Amino acid sequence: MFPNAIPNFLIARLPFFYGWIILACVCFAGFARQGPAVATLSIFVGPMTDEFGWSRTAISGAVSLGGILAAITSPYLGTLLDRHGARMMLCWAVFTTAVAAMLLSLTQSLVVFYILFCIARMNFAGPFDLGIYGALNNWFVRNRGLATSITTLSLMIGLISMPLIAQTAIVLDGWRTGWLAVGMTVLVIGFLPNWLLMVRRPEDIGLQPDGPDRKAQALDAIGGPGQTHSPATPEPTFTRGQAMRTPTFWLLSAYTALVYPVQAGVSLHQAPHLIESGIDPTIAATIVSTFSLFSAISGVGLGLLARRIPTRLSLAAVGLCLGASALMMIPIESPPLGYASAAVFGIGIGGVLTLLPIAWADYFGRRSFGAIRGVALSIQVLAQAAGPLLSGILRDFTGNYTLSLECFTALAFIAALAALATTAPKVPAN
């Protein structure tokens, strides 16, 4: 449907593995994805609610509704990804997100805000996620941990940069200019690389995942010591139906449903909570970026160690980090504790963003990754939708964020228990 901009015979003759170009495209898309991230929106919560008089619940509802729309469409989009590849999906997501963000600068009512932000948020939660990890897992198997850690780094660089870009534009010329700056950044960085250079699968151009030195379709140990496949074990090839009949699918889904309300709820309301605790708005923006910085560090480190440490232990550890960080945020009154809690929160988020995609791909294989991930993504985005809404409702009801942070602490600790129960599924007989 969409021919490659570079002829296949030239791609095949490059002196290096073309997957590294795919990884670069994915990284550009990952950076652009953060335009409608909840951490970016958190920078706009104060000025927009001050101007329009909206409640925190009302503005949080846009995040939740966008997530619900993504949950409805993700299973269908996952099947399209398996059929057509990531190029169409990522280009569409980048372009429509950029346009929606720029049009948000014209917002005059809550209805207009909902329509535009829901489009952007639906892209963030659905097409961006499916396209990024679909391309990544098609091109890398043995080097999946390394490639995923680099992708997480790009996501976190975007998450560090977008709130600062927004805050700088807001300080210079108000929140409307902030949305223009975010939209232009998304378009300039994310669109052209994926339109010109993205290729669906290495097999489409006569290559193999990981390049010419990949060892006979071997998959390295999944989950590290104690949860190991021998080097000669072929990559698992689950269909969506087969995957959904395994306990592993539902335990990973339960973990997802428990940690993502924490991720989204804390991310969106972190800056308002800091400001309400007496911290200067610009300092609050740097604290938000601090959690992104530590997410990048954590993502790279855990990605490189992904097959040296059992997956279930790594996922449990990041769940504990998320719970501990939510507890630390409750008594914040000064910047030092804010930076410390943001660092611990970032370690947990980096682990979730890196380890869960690796776990899904390693456990269930590439063949039906989009279809399997599409179902799991519906659970994920519904969980992300619930977090900000829960936090906003509890804040409006109690007047502060203490109760919501206590709820997020409990969810994260329960998630750690679900992770400990997860083991690799039995590969189905052909």
Unreliable stretches (pLDDT < 50, length at least 5) are 214-232
Helix amount? over 70%
**Strand-and-helix sequence, N→C?**
HHHHHHHHHHHHHHH
What overall form do the CA principal axes indicate?
globular
Number of strands: 0
> How much of the sequence is in beta strands?
under 5%
CATH architecture: Up-down Bundle
Structural class based on helices, strands and sheet pairing = mainly alpha
Number of domains: 1
By CATH, the topology is: Growth Hormone, Chain: A
Mean pLDDT: 85
Q: What's the number of helices?
A: 15
CATH superfamily: MFS general substrate transporter like domains
Radius of gyration: 21 Å
CATH class (first level) name: Mainly Alpha
Distance between the termini: 31 Å
Explain what you see:
The structure is a single chain. The chain is an all-alpha fold and about 425 residues long. It has one domain: Up-down Bundle (Growth Hormone, Chain: A), CATH 1.20.1250.20. It has 15 helices and no strands. It has helices spanning about 10, 20-35, 40-50, 55-85, 85-105, 110-140, 145-175, 175-195, 240-245, 245-275, 280-305, 310-330, 335-365, 370-400, 400-420. The model is unreliable at about 215-230 (pLDDT under 50).
Tell me the layout of helices and strands:
Blueprint: H1 8-12, H2 19-33, H3 38-52, H4 56-84, H5 86-103, H6 110-139, H7 144-173, H8 175-197, H9 240-244, H10 247-276, H11 281-304, H12 311-329, H13 335-364, H14 369-398, H15 402-420
Helix pairs in contact: 2-6, 2-7, 2-8, 3-7, 3-10, 4-6, 4-14, 5-6, 5-8, 6-14, 7-8, 7-11, 7-13, 10-11, 10-12, 10-13, 10-14, 10-15, 11-13, 12-13, 12-15, 14-15
